[in-house]
Each structure stands twice: as structure tokens, then as C-alpha cells.
Amino acid sequence: MNEILSVFRIKKGEWRVAWAALIVLLFLHYMLIHSYPDSFFRWGHIGYFSAFSEKMHISGFDDWSYIMLSNKRIYFITLRHPLWSTLLYPLYLLNGWLSTEMGHNCAVYIMAAINTILTIYSAIFSFRIFHELLDLKRGEACLLTAFFFSFAHVMLATIVPDHFNPSLFLLLLTLYIAGRHFKSGRPMGIVQTAVLYFFTAGMTLTNGVKVMLAAWLSRGRRVFMPLFICGAFLIPSGLLYGIYHYQYEQFVEPSLRHSKQVENAMIKKDPKKWYQKQNSHHKWTEKQNGKPMTENIPILEWGDMTTSRGKTFVENLFGEGFMLHDDYLLKDVQQQRPVFVKPYSAKINYAVEALIILLLVVGAYYGRHSKLLLLSLSWFAFDMLMHMGFGFGINELYIMTSHWAFLIPVAAAFIIKRQYALKATMLNGLILLMTLYMWAYNVYMLASHCAIV
After folding, report:
1. 1 or 289: which carries more pLDDT confidence?
2. How far is it, in rounded angstroms, from Cα 38 to Cα 48?
3. Is the four-CA dihedral 444, 447, 452, 453 of positive or negative sign?
4. How confident is the model at residue 53 (pLDDT cuts 50, 70, 90)?
5. Quick one: CA dihedral 121, 394, 320, 366, positive or negative?
6. pLDDT value of position 293
7. Residue 343 DSSP class
8. Contact, 68 vs 49, CB < 8 A?
């Protein structure tokens, strides 16, 4: 537990990374918040669902956190994110006090502050992984950190009010702590693993598997000891289920009842218009979501067996996830955006995409004996099994990029380590050009979107 707490102390050589991250985040948050309509800042007895959700469509990211902070109503699936609303509850109380004092809703600013703090630490953990664990020079570690955050849906995840940024923070924390144990040869302990599992799975349930994989690579067969399994995984899972059950009764059910009342009022007011809207949206989402294995079994109904995997790989997984398409820019696949949009108008984007894939493949080969890279690869494999195999969320796979894309700079680090001085300099120059291009391209696209929201 002390080790987990100690990693939050920012060291002398890391303050430059922290300040650089802060400056960039302030600029990105300013652009996003400046584009918001007046309804995002209204305070009082208003319909917050209409105020936020009908006006915010940023690439499919949800704005449920703004609503939770405004009126305590929960619209996300708590089974998949059992701890998210619990962690948001103190911020709801803070927002109530601040908004009453200031006369306007402060939910947007509170989430921006939380995202900024989490992203600064994510940048620091990334820097430490490259510098401390992989022994790269400070300049190279800074370059790969900037490279990672230039990815479009990593950049977006750091500023939108969804669960992806907290998940990214927890995954990088887990990767860093596990990497320290790999390097020292010490196995991860029960308490440490339990804390990481509780928060990581609590934020995104499936990411708990990634903590299990980290413990397995750290402890080997000892991870299967009954005492370790019970203390590290079963007890935290029980706590998460208890939290989920309590908040479902206390918060989710009242939210559902309120939504039903609003729905009945809308039907009563204009039934023809309401049913036309619902039928139109149902037909759109049915076309967008593909066909699952079965529609009668819970969880299996979330799959998708028909969406093209080849197109998804090129245009969405290694395309939209890293560089935004200018067609249907940042539109929501559940609202306006087709699953596959027109190819990039700039052919250089496909060259950058090919280089990213090449970095992954070559880096995976060079680092194949490293537990840190094997752990990153196992996380990627799990995500691909879930998304590309089972088809969960495959129609908007790009928004999941922050859950796995740190594998790319980690793999690139192993290529840099294997090169002689001249080749390493050339490779660093290539990565620098890619980084500058993706930052310029993606920020320009985001700025274009924010100007018309």
C-alpha cells in the first residue's frame, strides 16, 4: 500500500513533464468548454438530460458524468462501471455547493479539473515507464510520452467527461507498478494487487482482468494460491458487487423511475411524434450495431458478429483511433456517423498508420523477452478478443484506444534500445515527425469541431 501511495510523489526531474501536460490540457479544455452551449452551465430545476445529452456528441463519448454531478441521476450501466458513480458522489456534493454559491452549474469545470489531474499523472507514469523501467534517456522518454498523447482518441479521452481517462490513469499506474516488480524481481503483494484490482475493475469491470494478468506475470504459479486469489480478487469483487447492488437500489432505480415518468409525459403530450422519433432511432442503431450471437442471453447480446473486421482494423482501430477522419468529424455512431466513413483525404495518414503498425510489430519482436512488453501485449490481446473477436463495441472501437494504445510507444522503446547511436537518432527523428504531425492534425480537427458545436 505504501508503494502505491509513494508513486504519486512528483520527482524533481518530472516537473517539466507535469507543467507541459498542464499547459496542453488547459488549451484543450478551453477549446472544448468554449464550444459548449449555455445549457451546460444552467443551474436549478431543469432537465439535465436534455441540457447535456441532446447537445453533446463527441465521437460517442458519454456525458453522464455531467448529469450525475448536476442532479445525481445515473444513466450509465453500473454493472460495467460499479465504482464510477461512487467516486463521483463527493463531486456531486461539491458541485451542489459551488453551483448554489456561484449561480451556475460548475459540473463542466469540476470534471475538467479532475481530468487534468489524472492526465498529468498519466503523463508522469508514461515518462517513468520509458525512463525508469526501459532505461531510455529523458529526452527519448519525453518524446514517447508526447507520441502517446498525440493519438486522437487518447487525446480526446483526457478531456471528455467519460470513464476512459480514469481507466487510462489506473491502467498506467498498474503497468508502472507491475514493471517495477518485474525489474526488481519482487512479486506483487496481496494488498497491493487487491487495491489495484478494486479500483481498476471498479472503473471498468473488464480491466480487472488486466490486473490479474499483471499479478500472474509477477508471481507466476503462486498467483493461484487460494489465499492470494481470495484476498486479491474475490474479496474486492465481493465489495464491488455490494457497492453495485446498493447504488442500483439507491440511485439507478430512482433514475429509471424518473426517466419513465418523463417518457410517459412526452408520450402523452405528442404520442405520434415520440413514437416516430423512437422508431427512427431504433432502426438507425439496429443498422449500426450489427447482429449479435444471440439476442436472448445477457452479455452475449452485446456482441457483434457481422461488422467487417478488415475495415474496422484499417479505418477504425488503427485509423480513427489515432487520427480523426475529416468526414463526419467527431460524430456519434449511435446518432449520425456511419460505422465506416470515407477514407482519409490525406494519404499521408495511411503512411503514418502503417508506421504505427510497423513499430508495434518490430517492437514486439525486439521486446519479446520483456515481461513489461508481454504484459502490454496480453492486455492488447484481451481487448482485441473482446472487441474484434466477440464484437463488443466494435462499431465504435476507436473510443477504446486509451485502454491499449500505450503498447505502441512501449514497443517503440524496445526498437530504440536495440539501435546504435545513428540509427536511434534517425528513429527518434521519425517518431518526432509522426508526433508533430498527429498533434497538429488532431488538434486542428478538434478545433474545427469546437468552432461549430
Report:
1. 289
2. 12
3. positive
4. confident
5. positive
6. 65
7. P
8. no
What 3-state DSSP class applies to 61? Answer: strand
215-221: list long-range contacts, CB under 8 Å, 24+ apart.
Answer: 215/188, 217/178, 217/182, 217/371, 217/374, 217/375, 217/378, 218/178, 218/181, 218/182, 218/187, 218/188, 218/371, 219/187, 219/188, 220/187
Q: Is 323's pLDDT higher than 70?
A: yes
Backbone φ, ψ for residue 384 (5° rounding): -70, -35
The answer, yes or no, to whether residue 453 has pLDDT greater than 60, is no
Q: What is the CA radius of gyration of the chain?
A: 22
Q: Are 207 and 172 in contact (CB under 8 A)?
A: no
Residue 61's beta-bridge partner residues? Answer: 58
Query: How many CA atoms, within 13 angstroms, populate the side-chain half-sphere of residue 193?
Result: 27
Over the stretch 361-408, which tens digit does the pLDDT of each residue have? Answer: 999 999 999 999 999 999 999 999 999 988 888 888 999 999 999 999
pLDDT, tens digit (0-9, with 9 covering 90-100), for 250-267: 888 877 777 777 777 777
pLDDT given at position 288: 65
Angle between helix 190-203 and 235-247 (nearest 10): 30
Residues 119 and 165: their CA atoms lie apart, in Å, by 7
CA dihedral 252, 254, 258, 263 (to 10 degrees): 50
Q: Cα(158)–Cα(399) distance, rounded to whole angstroms?
A: 12
| Phi and psi, residue 227, nearest 5° | -65, -40
How much is the pLDDT for 447?
Answer: 94
Q: In this structure, what C-alpha cell is assigned to residue 207?
A: 480491466
Q: What b-and-e string marks burial along 90-104, b requiring 16 or more CB atoms within 10 Å of the CB? A: ebbeebbebbeeeee
Residue 295 C-beta-side C-alpha neighbours within 13 Å: 4
Mean pLDDT computed over 430-453: 91
pLDDT at residue 236, rounded to an integer: 96
| Angle formed by the axes of helices 107-128 and 84-102, nearest 10° | 130
pTM score above 0.90: yes
Looking at residue 364, its amino acid is: A
